Backbone:
């Protein structure tokens, strides 16, 4: 028995020596390299645990202390609305990473692409999509022609993008192309208006609209506050959809708060400054005591006011938006344009990109999002311009301020 135990112990000792001899010995250099790899892995894990944020990607929204951004409406189209903050709050690090890791593309089919406003919207959309790792394949304009726009939408569908953004000019005009795009699995976003029967399109993500009612309300309020008493002319535009009606209703509701203001409704204006000038001339001849004039678009209000001035009558004017420099120039020189409430194309482009990103990640976004109202007046025009258009006011106009 003792012999057996001795033999077993010898075998175990030999096995232990064999394993020890075959054990690799790590060099100092290898140990250092392994330590660096481990540290790098831990760094990646830490970064993943902290996660991406919109700010990390350089995407900001409503980031300015120099301008006034007004509280928006709570309903539109009979639905509850969400804000841009509500949309941004949906994002998590995982959603952002999924979008950036994907291979997504987008197209934008707009109403026009020649104004500074439209170009700024497209630049904002392109820039935000790029930060999310999404390629904007193309953007189109149609000079306010729905037929031309639909033709271009058809061409964009053939590009098979992941996302199609359509500027809505007539809620009922897009049924065929929306159905065709949806059947191909292309995500859809309506901008500026909500198309009819959105529940029929499986890939429809949602709608982003300017707060048109409050645009009309605040711009007319500024005009009435300046005039205080007397007659104010007001005209809507020959335009498709809910947009102009909502602006006009907001303006009428604002004017109703001023007991000494009488609103005289003028003829509808075509989408040209020449048309506005003619209507301004006809209105001031019919109502020579008129003190103010409001139109649903700032450039048209300036055009009408110029028409009145050509007949020797100077009135104050206002109208929603800052579409070009004509209203800003008036604010800084003759003071005819009193200020306004405007849509920020910079904000709109950002919000559209964010809604699209949520769709790419398979996440639900708010169904109807309102872009906020930015106030423009003679005191903040430089800052408000920078915020809204993402670029500085041109040098000539800056000299008028400085």
Residues:
């Amino acid at each position: 028995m003792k012999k057996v135990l001795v033999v077993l112990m010898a075998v175990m000792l030999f096995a232990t020596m064999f394993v020890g001899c075959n054990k690799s010995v790590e060099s100092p250099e290898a140990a250092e390299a392994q330590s660096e790899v481990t540290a790098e892995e831990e760094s990646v894990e830490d970064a993943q645990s902290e996660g991406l944020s919109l700010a990390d990607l350089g995407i900001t929204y409503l980031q300015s202390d120099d301008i006034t951004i007004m509280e928006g409406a709570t309903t539109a189209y009979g639905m509850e609305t969400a804000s841009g903050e509500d949309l941004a709050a949906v994002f998590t690090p995982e959603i952002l990473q999924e979008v950036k890791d994907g291979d997504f593309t987008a197209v934008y089919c707009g109403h026009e692409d020649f104004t500074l406003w439209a170009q700024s919207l497209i630049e904002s959309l392109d820039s935000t999509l790029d930060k999310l790792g999404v390629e904007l394949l193309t953007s189109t304009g149609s000079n306010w022609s729905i037929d031309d726009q639909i033709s271009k939408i058809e061409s964009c569908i053939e590009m098979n993008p992941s996302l199609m953004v359509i500027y809505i000019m007539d809620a009922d005009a897009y049924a065929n192309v929306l159905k065709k795009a949806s059947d191909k699995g292309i995500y859809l976003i309506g901008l500026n208006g909500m198309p009819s029967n959105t529940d029929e399109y499986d890939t429809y993500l949602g709608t982003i609209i300017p707060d048109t009612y409050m645009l009309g309300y605040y711009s007319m309020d500024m005009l009435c506050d300046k005039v205080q008493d007397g007659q104010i002319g007001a005209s809507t535009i020959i335009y498709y959809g809910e947009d102009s009606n909502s602006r006009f209703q907001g303006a009428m509701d604002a004017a109703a708060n001023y007991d000494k203001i009488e609103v005289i409704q003028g003829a509808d204006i075509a989408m040209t400054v020449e048309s506005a000038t003619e209507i301004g001339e006809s209105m001031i001849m019919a109502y020579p005591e008129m003190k103010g004039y409001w139109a649903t678009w700032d450039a048209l209000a300036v055009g009408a006011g110029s028409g009145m001035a050509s007949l020797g009558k100077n009135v104050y004017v206002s109208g929603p938006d800052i579409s070009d420099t004509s209203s800003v120039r008036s604010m800084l020189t003759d003071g005819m344009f009193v200020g306004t409430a405007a849509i920020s194309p910079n904000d709109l482009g950002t919000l559209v990109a964010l809604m699209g990103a949520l769709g790419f990640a398979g996440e639900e976004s708010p169904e109807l999002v309102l872009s906020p109202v930015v106030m423009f007046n003679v005191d903040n025009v430089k800052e408000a311009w920078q915020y809204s258009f993402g670029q500085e006011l041109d040098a000539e106009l800056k000299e008028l301020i400085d």
